[in-house]
Write a structure and sequence with these properties.
Metallo-beta-lactamase, Chain A; 7-stranded mixed sheet; 24% helix; globular
């Protein structure tokens, strides 16, 4: 299974003329997930030709404005378009309190029905699950309660070897258990090990979103082996003291986190507006983790 990530916003709190606050769309078979919803998100959805009506799940990492100020505008536009659906919003429980007065002010009947799901900021939590995909939230280290999100394909069962079915006359009724890990016992009492009967399924696809956070190596075990890790790099290494003070990360800290996590690839973003040239962010991060790219508005990344 492949995922496709589209960057809508890559900047930190202050937008620039060409970088928007944080927002991303992750498309997996059957779902279109919106991750954070900074100001300007709906404009970026239009520019990238992503249908509003496809969005059914929104994940808000925390309640700093650059991560959710675009949400009420998005809901309002979806309502004006006549989108008729539930909109599941995974966020801090206070988000509903913050935007409910604005929802109440929308005139006429709401065609979009927001459904709020509170996050757990003390431990990892499975917050969404379908037959093929699951989403895990996990706490990160920031100045207010904040969660990262891990999107992953469910592990597929092993593939049974057709030559083994024929060789041992394996009945159809036994195949399901063998694919789930069981051994097989022949009519003569011979036990055939599962490892000899099956071919392991391909590694599940995964994507992790980590913003805003200080360097927090405790999460490396949660992110272990992730295919693509998005990690904030608000500051270059020269401002590491400011990063510590504000509980953000530097380039090299993001690279170290990718290394500790055994990530396949690192995508960096949440750039401070004080830096016009983000090439330095990539250069510094690659000193620690070579397979690094910058999150760029409008760019798509296939996982």
């Amino acid at each position: 299974m492949s995922f496709e990530l589209t960057i809508l916003g890559s900047n930190s709190a202050l937008p620039t003329s060409n970088r928007y606050p944080t927002a991303q769309v992750l498309e997996v078979p059957g779902f279109c997930f919106l991750i954070d919803c900074g100001e300007g998100t709906q404009i970026q959805l239009r520019r990238n030709k992503i249908s509003f009506s496809k969005i059914r799940h929104v994940f808000i990492s925390h309640l700093h404005g650059d991560h959710y100020y675009g949400l009420i505008g998005l809901i309002s536009t979806m309502n004006l378009m006549g989108v008729k659906s539930d909109l599941h919003i995974y966020a801090h429980s206070e988000l509903k309190t913050l935007i409910q007065p604005q929802l109440d002010f929308i005139r006429g009947d709401m065609t979009v029905k927001p459904i709020f799901h509170p996050l757990n900021f003390k431990k990892p939590q499975l917050i969404f699950e379908s037959k093929k995909v699951e989403v895990l939230s996990f706490p990160v280290k920031h100045s207010i309660p904040t969660c990262g999100f891990l999107f992953r394909e469910k592990q597929k069962p092993a593939n049974i070897r057709k030559d083994m079915i024929k060789a041992y006359n394996i009945p159809i009724a036994a195949i399901k258990d063998i694919k789930a890990g069981a051994d097989f016992t022949t009519a003569e009492g011979q036990v055939i090990a599962n490892v000899d009967l099956t071919i392991p399924a391909s590694k599940p696809t995964s994507y992790a979103f980590c913003t805003d956070t200080a360097f927090y190596p405790a999460n490396a075990s949660i992110l272990n082996g992730v295919d693509l890790l998005y990690h904030e790099t608000t500051f270059l290494e020269e401002l590491k003291e400011l990063a510590r003070k504000t509980l953000h990360s530097t380039t090299k800290e993001a690279g170290e986190m990718a290394t500790l996590s055994g990530a396949g690839k690192l995508l960096i973003g949440h750039f401070s507006a004080r830096f016009k040239d983000i090439s330095r962010f990539v250069e510094e991060t690659r000193e620690v983790f070579p397979n690094t790219e910058a999150a760029i508005e409008g760019r798509k990344y296939t996982i």
